[in-house]
Amino acid sequence: MEKGKSIPEEKETIEKNILSLYKECENFISSDECTKNLRNELEESIPDCLTVLRKWMDDLENSDHGIVIAGETSAGKSTLINKLFEKQLFRGRNNESTSTICKLRNSKRIRVITTDMRGQREETDMTDKCNLETKEGVKMLRNFLKDLTDLTSSEKSVTFNSVEVEFPIPFLGGNMILVDTPGIGGSGNVTDKLIKYLPNALLFIFMINAGSAGGMQNDRLPEIIRAIVLLHLENEMPCFDPRNAIFITNKWDTLYSEDDSSDEDEETKTWNTLKFDIKNRWPSVRDELIFKMNLKDLQTP
Fold it and tell me: What distances in angstroms separate CA 205 from CA 63, 163, 239, one per listed residue?
């Protein structure tokens, strides 16, 4: 680290230097100094290299580096977020509930910022009245968010393009954010919000309901996976590495009744089928990033 600079300042300096280098490369490739032969060689190694370079610059300048949690309705996305934060911030439901993109970021203050379809923002600062170290404070924020993000609680929630929630989240460093998304397979307009957000993502966590027809229904999660693969092939997501995608299969406890003597064999078959389906639709997936769990069994303080 450069003497006298903090880690965030050092990071900002590095990003500026990289951005400057990218711009110099873009100017050179676009100039007369770059010969036709060199351009052809660049295109062979990096197809549509100028577009890719500009996408890299856009991603570097973008303040949001999103870890997107996506999955079918009732797959357990909200439950996963509650477990990660060790706070019951969102209510998990068995039907469609999340109505908009919800971005969660680290901050010293507790703020909620809504952005409507016209791009207008409204901020609510709850720092002085909401103590998230207490159950009462968590409940206050949860109830406030319910009216903004829960389709079953308020019709106005569908009017928001996104809801940003800021509070102390130590494991989210820098500009990294966690993004909760509307359930796939619900209302068309909320699914469209997810589709439009896909190019902004750097990493995906796919939630799969193992108790829902094996968890990979043909008209739901695979549709989103195909959209991501297509965007990546078209260089719309040059900073996204498909090898880092995480698949969490959840709700295994709902698969069979307790008195079914063949539970273990059937569960093994379902697990093997699910892994085969995931690898078939996402060939670059790594075995160690496919998980099997019952999130509700994990204790949350």
Answer: 20, 19, 16
Question: For residues 172 and 116, what is the distance between their CA atoms, to the nearest angstrom?
Answer: 25
From CA 74, how far away is CA 76, in angstroms rounded? 5
pLDDT in tens, 118-168: 888 899 999 999 999 999 999 999 989 888 877 655 566 567 778 899 999
3-state secondary structure 186-214: CCHHHHHHHHHHHHHEEEEEEEEECCCHH
> What is the pTM for the complete model shown?
0.72
The answer to whether the CB of 276 falls within 8 A of the CB of 268 is: no
CB within 8 Å of 265: residues ≥ 6 apart = none
**Are residues 274 and 210 in contact, defined by beta-carbon separation less than 8 angstroms?**
yes
Class for domain 65-297, per CATH?
alpha beta
